[in-house]
Design brief:
This protein is of the alpha/beta class. The protein is built from 19 helices and 12 strands. The N terminus is likely disordered.
Length: 421
C-alpha cells in the first residue's frame, strides 16, 4: 500500500511568515490512478482558496474497501472520502457517520451544474443525499484485433459461440489464452455474475431480490440464477480462461491481454489507459458481452456503476469540505478528469470533443444507450448477501461447490437478512 500526502499551502504560508487562521480538510481517495488528477485539482483549489489546505492520501483498491470503514469508525475520520454508489455507500451512511448534503444540491453548488439526476440518485438513501457522483464505469469484452483478423475469427454474439471460439483459439495457438482472467480479488468474478444474472433473470425480479424486497420465501428463487452460474462454470470447462484463476491478480489478467498472451479480456472502462500504457494502443477493440439464447433476462443490458465522494458527519470543517467537493466534481474539473486520466466523468456538461479518448467516448455511449443497466452485485446487493456471493464465487471457481450449493448459500443468507429487517 502506498499513501501520499499533500499539504503545501500551510507550509508555504508559514515559510512566508503569514499569520492567520488556516482551515485544513483531509481527503482520502482510492488510487493510484486518480493521483495525477487529484494533485492538479487540489493545486487549483488551494490557489483559489488560499485559506483552505487539503491533506490528501490514497489507498489501493482492495485494502481501501475495508480501510475506509475502519477510518470512518475512528476518532479522526477524513472529511472527504471516496465511495462506490449503492450498498457500499449506503452501509456507511447507515452508521450515522455521513453528512446529509441535500443543502448543497438545493443551493446549486458547482457540482450540480449539468449533473445527471439518474446518477445523482444512486447516492440517495432513506430520503437523503449522502454523496456526490464523480465517475461512471462500465465493463465490456475486448479482443486482440490482429489475432482475430490473422486467424479469421469472428466476434461471438452468443455464449454458445464464445465457448466454441475458446476451443478454436486453443486449436490455432495452444499457447494463447482465450480470455485472461485474474480473480485473486473476488470482485472480478462478481462482474461476470452481474452480467450473467442480468442475462438470465428479469431486471424487476433481480432488483427485488438484491434489495430483499421480495417475500422472504421467494428471494433468489428464480431458476435463472442457477443457470447463470452453470454458464459461468461452462466457460471454465470450455478452457476459456487461464489456469489458476483464483491466484492470478486482476493486474496480471490485464497484462496478459495487453502483452498478447490472451486473445480476449473482460475489463472495465478504466482499462484502456492501462492497455495503452503497456504498448497495446490501437491494437484492440471492444465488443458486447454475448447474449444467451432462450434466457429470460435482458440480452442487451450492460454493467454500469458510479463512484463518488461523501463528507464526514464528524467534520469540523463541513462547509470547506463541501466547497472542495463542489470544486472537485464541477463540470470543469470533470472535463479535466477525462483529459488527464481517461476516466468517464458522471457530469459531462463541460466535455468538449477530444476530452475523452475515442475508446472512452465509445464506452460512454454504450453505457448511456443501453436499454438496461445494473451496477456490480457487490455494490447493489444487500451487504451480507453480497459477501456470500463474493466468497462463493471463488469457491465455484475452485470447484468446491456446485451452482446449486452456491444458490442455497445465497438464499439462506437472504432469508436471514430479511428476517432481521
Amino acid at each position: 500500500m502506498r499513501t501520499t500526502f499533500i499539504a503545501t499551502t500551510t507550509a508555504a504560508l508559514l515559510a512566508a511568515g503569514v499569520a492567520g487562521a488556516q482551515t485544513t480538510i483531509t481527503f482520502q481517495d482510492q488510487g493510484p490512478e486518480r493521483e495525477p488528477f487529484n494533485e492538479e485539482a487540489i493545486r487549483l483549489f488551494e490557489e483559489a482558496n488560499p485559506d483552505i489546505d487539503v491533506e490528501y492520501a490514497w489507498q489501493a483498491n482492495e485494502p481501501y474497501k475495508t480501510g475506509i470503514k475502519v477510518m470512518m469508525e475512528s476518532n479522526d475520520p477524513p472529511d472527504v472520502y471516496f465511495v462506490w454508489a449503492g450498498s457500499f455507500a449506503n452501509d456507511i451512511a447507515d452508521t450515522g457517520v455521513v453528512s446529509e448534503i441535500s443543502d448543497s444540491e438545493t443551493r446549486g453548488d458547482a457540482w450540480t451544474r449539468g449533473a445527471s439526476k439518474g446518477i445523482v440518485d444512486q447516492f440517495r438513501h432513506n430520503d437523503g443525499l449522502y454523496g456526490v457522483p464523480a465517475e461512471i464505469y462500465t465493463k465490456t469484452m475486448w479482443k486482440n484485433d490482429a489475432f482475430f483478423d490473422d486467424n479469421g475469427l469472428e466476434v461471438p454474439e452468443t455464449l454458445d459461440e464464445l465457448r466454441t471460439l475458446c476451443g478454436r483459439i486453443r486449436e490455432v495457438d495452444p499457447l494463447m489464452v482465450p480470455i485472461s482472467f485474474g480473480a485473486s480479488e473476488s470482485w472480478t468474478i462478481n462482474h461476470y455474475l452481474t452480467i450473467l444474472f442480468q442475462r438470465h433473470v428479469p431486471i424487476e425480479t433481480a432488483l427485488a431480490d438484491y434489495q430483499l424486497q421480495a417475500p422472504a420465501d421467494e428471494l433468489f428463487t428464480h431458476p435463472g440464477y442457477e443457470k447463470a452460474l452453470e454458464d459461468f462454470v461452462s466457460l471454465i470447462d470450455a478452457q476459456c480462461f487461464n489456469d489458476g484463476i483464483n491466484s492470478v491478480t486482476p493486474e496480471v489478467g490485464r497484462t496478459m491481454f495487453a502483452t498478447e498472451l490472451a486473445a480476449m479480456n473482460f475489463c472495465g472502462s478504466w482499462c484502456p489507459p492501462m492497455f495503452d500504457d503497456q504498448g497495446f494502443a490501437g491494437r484492440y477493440s471492444m465488443f458486447p458481452f454475448p447474449r444467451i439464447e432462450g434466457a429470460e433476462g435482458d440480452q442487451d443490458g450492460v454493467l454500469v456503476g458510479a463512484v463518488g465522494y461523501q463528507v464526514s458527519e464528524a467534520s469540523d470543517e463541513r462547509e470547506a469540505a463541501l466547497k472542495f467537493v463542489s470544486h472537485l466534481l464541477s463540470p470543469e474539473m470533470a472535463a479535466l478528469r477525462a483529459r488527464m486520466i481517461g476516466r468517464i466523468p458522471s457530469n459531462n456538461a463541460a466535455l468538449e470533443d477530444g476530452d475523452l479518448a475515442p475508446m472512452a467516448a465509445a464506452l460512454l455511449d454504450m453505457a448511456t444507450s443501453a436499454p438496461v443497466s445494473v451496477p456490480p452485485l457487490n455494490t447493489i446487493v444487500e451487504t451480507s448477501v453480497s459477501d456470500v456471493i463474493l466468497k462463493s464465487g471463488q469457491d465455484l471457481v475452485a470447484g468446491t461447490i456446485t451452482p446449486a450449493e452456491f444458490m442455497d448459500r445465497v438464499r439462506a443468507q437472504a432469508r436471514d437478512a430479511a428476517s432481521r429487517g
